[in-house]
Amino acid sequence: MKLSKTSLLVIIAGVLIIALAGVGFFYYQQINEQNQLNEQLALAQSRLSGVQLEKLSSQQAELDTQLSQTTAQFEEVRALFSHPFGSIAVTDTLFDIAEAHGLEITVMTSPGLASESLEETTCLVTTLNATVEGDVPNLVDFVISLNSQLATGVVKSITITIPETTGEMKEGEMKVKIYTIPTCDYCHQAKEFLSERGVKFTEYDVSSNRPAADEMVDLTGQTGVPVIVVDGQVVIGFDRARLEQLLGNVEKPSANIELVVYAYHGE
């Protein structure tokens, strides 16, 4: 069967239309898939940005907290170092602490105020050099009190000197005798008192030495101990004040102390 020219053209046109329709449908599917991919990509980017922003916000909050804590600590230290002070005030405090511990400050020197950088903070500095005399235990307690009562003070150096107590008594040296018994607490305290001041003494145990006991009774008219004789001067009992008076020219233990006190100096 022979197709006419018109029929052939119709068939060709139909085939072209079907082909174009197929191409158009395929192109539409590609566009649709591309749009879906773009939407998914945008959603993923949005979620990623949200996670990063949340993480950054958390880090910023943590840094803000640390900054606040550091600032608070700085203000505490600044307040501590901001108390007004001067050489006179520190010296008065030093004398008060020494007196409370039964000590005597015999020398006190200070170069005056100076400026020093401490942890990148400018501070005023007062340096005091003092010589303190008294019992060794009291000297130790004195240094401990300086560190506790002077919040911004530092004992940079300390040298304790204890007079020698060994050797024979020299001619013209003070003669000290003490009558004791082993069970007497005041006797032990009196001997420690004399030893800490570098005083050489002769001890007589009247519980086992009858001639010494008789000698003590002859001197005092009584049997109580301790009895201390300093160059012929009799002291009954452990009378610290009287002994201090009689031993006034005896060298005492001493401590040479270098004390540095800081104060904040800034805007």
Describe this structure in words.
The chain is of the alpha+beta class. The N and C termini lie far apart (113 Å). About 6% of the residues have low confidence. 51% of the residues lie in helices and 23% in strands. The strands form two sheets. Strands 1, 2, 3, 4 and 9 form a five-stranded antiparallel β-sheet that branches. The chain folds into three domains: 71 residues; 89 residues, 2-Layer Sandwich (Alpha-Beta Plaits), CATH 3.30.70.60; 71 residues, Glutaredoxin, CATH 3.40.30.10.
Count of individual beta strands: 9
What is the beta-strand fraction?
A: 15-25%
Reading the helices and strands in chain order gives: HHEEEHEEHEHEEHE
Number of helices: 6
What is the 3D shape?
Answer: rod-shaped
Q: What is the makeup of the main sheet?
A: 5 strands, antiparallel
CATH topology of the largest domain: Alpha-Beta Plaits
CATH architect. name of the largest domain: 2-Layer Sandwich
- Output the structural class: alpha+beta
Give the terminus-to-terminus CA distance.
Answer: 113 Å
Q: Mind telling me the C-alpha Rg?
A: 48 Å
Average pLDDT reading: 77
Level of helix content?
40-55%
CATH class of the largest domain: Alpha Beta
- Unreliable spans are 77-85, 166-171
**How many domain units?**
3
CATH superfamily of the largest domain: Ribosomal protein S6/Translation elongation factor EF1B
Please outline the helices and strands.
Blueprint: H1 5-81, H2 87-100, E1 104-109, E2 113-118, E3 121-133, H3 136-149, E4 153-161, E5 176-180, H4 185-196, E6 202-205, H5 210-220, E7 227-230, E8 233-236, H6 240-246, E9 254-264
Parallel strand pairs: 5-6
Antiparallel strand pairs: 1-3, 2-3, 3-9, 4-9, 5-7, 7-8
